[in-house]
Amino acid sequence: MDAGDWRCQLQVDSRQRIVIKIMDTLKRHIPYSSEDELKKIAVRFEEKIYVAATSQSDYLRKISLKMLTMDTKSQNTMANSLQSNYAGSSGIQLLSENIQNNIPPAGFA
To answer: 98 pLDDT exceeds 60?
Structure first.
């Protein structure tokens, strides 16, 4: 890296704070992972974007977009899951009502 490279101007603790933010986002999406696993994923994620970015603003933009994409996909997945659960429970309720309506009371068979 030459002295004019934007990476030389980025403080090391800035990268660490970004890794921590990535880990916080990952915790919401992968809640059962260990802290070590999340840190490894976050460090690789940050490093990949750090190397590919053309400027500090590009780096921050790419990190933000990836984290926003993760949140959006997760929200869509949760919404679809809730809709499926609602439809499933409604279907079970309708089925139980049909069974109750189609079974004659005891003694009237």
So the answer is: no
- Of the two residues 45 and 4, the one the predictor is more confident about is 45
- Tell me whether residue 103 is exposed, middle or buried, using C-beta atoms within 10 angstroms of its C-beta: 0 to 12, 13 to 18, 19 or more: exposed
What's phi and psi for 37, nearest 5 deg? Answer: -60, -45
- Which long-range contacts link 71-75 to residues 24+ away (Cβ below 8 Å)? 71/25, 71/28, 74/28, 74/29
Q: Evaluate whether 56 touches 10 at the Cβ level (below 8 Å).
A: yes
pLDDT of residue 36: 92
**Residues contacting residue 92 through CB under 8 Å, at least 6 positions apart:** none
- Tell me the whole-structure pTM to 2 decimals: 0.64
Q: In the chain, which residue ranges form alpha helices assigned H by DSSP? A: 6-9, 12-29, 35-52, 56-102
Structure tokens at 93: 């309720």
